[in-house]
Amino acid sequence: MSARPVIKADAAMLAAQPFAAAPPPPRHDPRDDELASLRKEVAALQEALKAAAQAQQSAVAKAREEARIEGLRAAEKDDKARSATLRATGDKALQLWREKLAELDGLAAALAREALEKLLGPAAMEAELVQRALTRHLAMLGREAVLAIHVSADDFDEDEARRLEEAGANAPIRRDSALSAGECRIDLKLGHVDIGPRTQWSLLRAELDALVGDTAGA
User: Fold this and answer.
1) What is the DSSP string of 92-116?
2) pLDDT tens digits, residue range 13-71?
3) Of the candidates 183, 180, 179, 178, which has an alpha carbon nearest to the alpha carbon of residue 194?
4) pTM for this structure?
5) Residue 68: helix, strand or coil by DSSP?
6) Which spans of this chain does the record mark as coiled coil (predicted)?
7) Which residues contact 204 (CB under 8 A, 6 or more apart)?
8) Least CB-packed of 40, 74, 138, 141 within 10 Å?
C-alpha cells in the first residue's frame, strides 16, 4: 500500500499572503460620557432629595414627641392649664411641620431646576432632544393632522433635516432661522404647537422659580 504524498506549503508563498485587516475600533462619542455624567448627577440629586425627606420626617416625629411629653408634664402640674398647654404645644408642632414641609418643597424645586439646567444647559444635545420630542408628539397628535414641522437652522443642516423627514416625519421639515436652538414648532390643521425642549424648559423654569420664591418667603 503506497503512502499518500504530504503536501507542504511553500514558506515564501505563505509569507506573501497578507493578513485580513482588523476592523477599525468603534468610534467613541464624547456625548455618551457627558450624558452618563449627567445621569450620575441627577441620581445623586435624587438621593439628596430622598435623604432630605427622611430627615424632615424624623424632625417632625421628634417635635411631636417632645410636644406630647411637654404637654403631659404640664397637665400633671396644673389641670387647669392643661388644655391651653396642649393647644400651644400642638400648634408648635404643627408650625414646625409646616416649616419643614415648606423647606422640603423648596429643596425639591431647587434640585429639579438644577438637574434640568444641567441636562438642558449650553452643552446639551439640542438636535437629539428636539428629535425625541418630535417623535413623541407626532405619536400623540397623529401624523395626518400635521401640515409642516419647523426646526431651528442652528440644530439641523439641510442633510440632517432631510434625513429627519425621511425617517418618518411624514410632513415637510423646514429649517427656520427665526427659531433659536432647541426650539421646534409643529403646524397643524387647527393651529400650531411649540414642542421644543427649550420652550418647555422656559415654562417649567418659571414655575420652579415661583415655587422656590414662594417657599423662601413662607
Assistant:
1) HHHHHHHHHHHHHHHHHHHHHHHHH
2) 555 555 555 666 777 777 777 777 878 877 777 787 787 778 778 877 887 888 888 87
3) 183
4) 0.40
5) helix
6) 35-66
7) 116
8) 40
77/171: higher pLDDT: 171
Which of the pair, 2 or 61, is modelled with greater confidence? 61
* Dihedral sign for Cα atoms in the order 77, 82, 86, 88: negative
- What is the helix (H) or strand (E) element at residue 21, kind and residue range? none
Supply the DSSP string of 169-206, one letter for each residue. Answer: I-S-EEEETTSPTT-EEEEETTEEEE--HHHHHHHHHH
Question: pLDDT tens-digit profile of 99-139?
Answer: 666 665 555 655 665 665 555 555 446 777 788 888 888 88
β partners of residue 194: 185
Q: Report how far apart, in Å, the C-alpha atoms of 116 and of each of 38, 133, 154, 211 are.
A: 10, 15, 21, 15
Q: How many CB atoms lie within 10 A of CB 126?
A: 23
Sign of CA dihedral 138, 140, 144, 147: negative
